[in-house]
# Entry
Amino acid sequence: MPKRKFEALEIDFIDESEVLTPADEQFHVDKHKFKAPFVCGCRNLGEALRRIAEGAAMIRTKGEAGTGNIVEAVRHMRSVMGDMRKVKLMGDEELVNFGKEIGAPFELLKQVRELGKLPVPNFAAGGIATPADASLMMQLGAEAVFVGSGIFKSSDPSARAEAIVLATTHYRDPEVLVRVSAGLRGAMAGLDVRSMDESELLSTRGW
Amino acid sequence: MVNGLVMARIGVLALQGDFPMHEQRLLALGCQVTQVRTPQDLTGLEGLIWPGGESTTMTRVMTDELRGALREFCSTHPVWGTCAGMIMLSHTDPDPRVRTLELADVHVNRNGWGRQVHSFEADLRVVPELAELRAPVGMFIRAPRITRLGPAVRVLAWYRDEPVAVEHGRILLTTFHPELTGDDRFHRLFLSWILSHQRVAS
# Structure
């Protein structure tokens, strides 16, 4: 129901937010029923394609939100990109079997094979806290980045936001990265994901 | 070399927005494509596509140096703006967050159809040189709306009776996103401008 309210408010985009505030622990939202587009998280290609099958208009890595630690987002992006590279070389019979293994619809896998990328924009999120994090995710294949607490929990939100945007646009240019990173004050304090209790992890929510 | 013409070298402004799809369309038509992020990237290009995205974000991300280089390039080469790219080449209502180049004698109203939920697709009516068996589909995503056209501007396509694609000199402007449909006729039109420009030059 909150999603219906967002739509009534003419919100431009809805984050299903399945990691932060799940209102339903069993099912994801049937996003085809909404006119407002949805963005959903994923840890791997199968999860991304299940969300797209449900109607997601944009996909982001889950990463580990609120940690300021990029390692999970890197793991998820590498998994999605690596599996897409494999898919590009598969024949139909292999693709059917692969779809069964990762729980992804065959038709969407065929689209990925044809396009060489997800059929919707592929964002990085969950742990980006520095311009270098943003640049790294772009180099791994992200088409854009989402940053939340990495900006708002830092000691210099405005300057940091500007620097992350520039590092994303010019991700191939290390000189820009050095220039925009210089002079930034403290990034948000990072959490070591390995030291966190299993029950505290957000990225394991959803399927 | 095709028919004595050199493969067109076209830039796609890659500050932000939908530049990968434009790049794919141009590659499929056999162009050489450069993603443009700095003034140096414009060197040697014969034309530029300014893709859709957010005109406010583009304004923020663009350095004064790049703005100057784009102004110079777009005044002397064929250029095509789609959606937010069209806004950046036209005139728009005063807003401190958006500084456009005002190169085309066209005035637009940003988000003229409303918010994201009012985005839509519709068949367009086109001038004879763009007509094919099927009408092109316009994808209007928080699209701008044209509110005024100068006397030297020619309309190329309409949605209902409203102009949605225009040309002014060597500036092509579309309020919708032709790169998102399989129909590449607007890309071919733009490419033909560049090839005829090559002929004139040689």
